[in-house]
TrEMBL record:
The keyword Transmembrane applies. Residues 161-174 have a biased composition (Low complexity). It comes from Cohnella yongneupensis. Residues 275-420 form the Oxidoreductase molybdopterin-binding domain. The keyword Transmembrane helix applies. SUPFAM superfamilies: Oxidoreductase molybdopterin-binding domain (SSF56524), Transmembrane di-heme cytochromes (SSF81342). This is Molybdopterin-dependent oxidoreductase.
Length: 433
């Protein structure tokens, strides 16, 4: 026997319910991707599955939108005289389409220029800051128990009054000796100034505003370049550097003058371990492996190596960028030349001072003229939170190749998988020009 096709209302209800659950899971996975401690879960292996789940569910919302299109005309006709429902429908569709399109750009990041990725990230974040609180508010205030104003109401006397119909009670006649007949008039109770649903809507709205408004405005100020979020081209608004590296490197004239004009954008702080700290009294930098002249420098010795200044952009695989950075450091090609490479050397491995993070480049990549072992950014020592005192800089690749807290370079004969590559990232992290 053929199953009866679900009616129009049932189809709408099913789409609404399933889409709501998908959005809830998207919100949860989005928070987990944004939340810094998650990067260390399961030794870093949790992030990539969460990211893939987030992407897959985002694409499912696109399927739901396609399924809704044949129903849209009839649905709009049904609610043509309900402006609030039409407004809600328009807003929800706009949110879903915005999330979907910006998410696709971020998912296929390597096929788009950094400018597209930056715009997509800003749109995705903006819709999230606005959309998630709105959908939470909409979901709670539309629950069945919240839509029953007759259950309870707050009246002007501050007492809770029942407003459900009640059986008539005999009235006491003022000054009389007994009860009046059942049909006698009962004095009316004071009218409530706020019913159950109004109270819930007001309470939920206030709670969401208190929760989301402060971080939203901090995010907005940072995006507009007026706040203190992230690390801008100068570090006046950043906590004091936890490193104790003395003496500080003396910047070259082009660094002092910040020939790039000052970095545009903000660095986000990502780490897979607790932030390490370094002291010049114990800090060491080693270049070894398949080289003729392995060397270890202390801090003062390392500062004597000739440096150069370059202006380049910095792109993260999560979609943000910082443009026109003025970096000062040592050309990696010069360090390798001084060390004298042996014929077996084919790859360069980089070690972070956090004791966990590593990555590799081929010799051809390592010899690119803009690969730098950097010490200064816009004329100042690189802050500990962003990879100082020394970090690798590979401008033509995404930032996970630019190892922070660099303290060792090893020449090896076979490629070795880097930290994030072992967890699903591409080995060759080229940025689309």
């Amino acid at each position: 026997m053929d199953r009866k096709k679900p009616g129009f209302g049932k189809q709408l209800a099913d789409l609404h319910r399933w889409n709501a659950w998908i959005v809830v899971i998207l919100a949860i996975t989005g928070v987990l991707l944004f939340w810094e401690p998650v990067r260390g879960w399961l030794d870093g292996h949790a992030r990539q599955p969460i990211k893939q789940l987030h992407i897959a569910l985002g694409l499912v919302t696109g399927i739901f939108l396609l399924l809704y299109i044949p129903l849209m005309k009839r649905h709009l006709k049904q609610i043509r005289n309900r402006p609030r429902q039409k407004g809600n429908l328009t807003l929800v569709i706009a949110l879903l389409v915005g999330w979907l399109l910006s998410g696709i750009v971020l998912w296929q990041l390597r096929h788009f220029s950094p400018a597209w990725a930056n715009a997509a990230l800003a749109i995705h974040d903006l819709f999230t800051w606005f959309g998630v609180p709105y959908l939470v508010y909409h979901s709670i205030t539309r629950l069945r128990w919240a839509k029953q104003p007759g259950r309870r109401a707050v009246n002007t006397t501050g007492t809770v009054a029942a407003t459900q119909p009640q059986a008539k009670q005999p009235a006491q006649i003022p000054g009389g000796r007994g009860w009046a007949d059942q049909g006698a008039a009962v004095p009316a109770s004071p009218a409530p100034w706020m019913n159950r649903r109004q109270f819930i809507k007001l309470s939920v709205g206030a709670a969401l505003a208190v929760t989301f408004a402060p971080p939203f405005f901090r995010w907005l100020q940072r995006e507009l370049g007026t706040g203190e979020g992230g690390l801008p081209g100068v570090t006046d608004n950043v906590m004091p550097d936890a490193n104790n590296m003395l003496p500080e490197p003396t910047p070259l004239p082009d660094s002092v003058n910040v020939v790039g004009g000052g970095a545009r954008g903000y660095f986000e702080m990502y780490t897979v371990t607790r932030l390490p700290t370094f002291d010049s009294a114990t800090w060491k930098f080693t270049l070894d492996g398949l080289v003729d002249r392995p060397t270890t420098w202390n801090w003062e010795q390392f500062l004597t190596i000739a440096r150069t200044v370059q202006v380049s952009d910095f792109h993260c695989v999560t979609g943000w960028s910082v443009y026109d950075n003025t970096w000062e450091g040592i050309r990696l090609s010069e360090l390798l030349k001084q060390a004298g490479l042996q014929s077996q050397a084919k790859f360069v491995k980089f070690y972070s001072g956090d004791g966990v993070y590593t990555d590799t480049l081929s010799l051809e990549q390592a010899y690119m003229d803009d690969v730098l072992v950097a010490l200064l950014h816009d004329g100042r020592p690189i802050h500990r939170d962003y990879g100082g005192p020394v970090r690798l800089l590979v401008p033509k690749m995404y930032a996970y190749k630019s190892v922070k807290w660099l303290n060792r370079i090893e020449l090896i004969d076979k490629d070795q998988i880097g930290y994030w590559e072992d967890r699903g990232y591409d080995t060759n992290a080229w940025v689309k020009a």
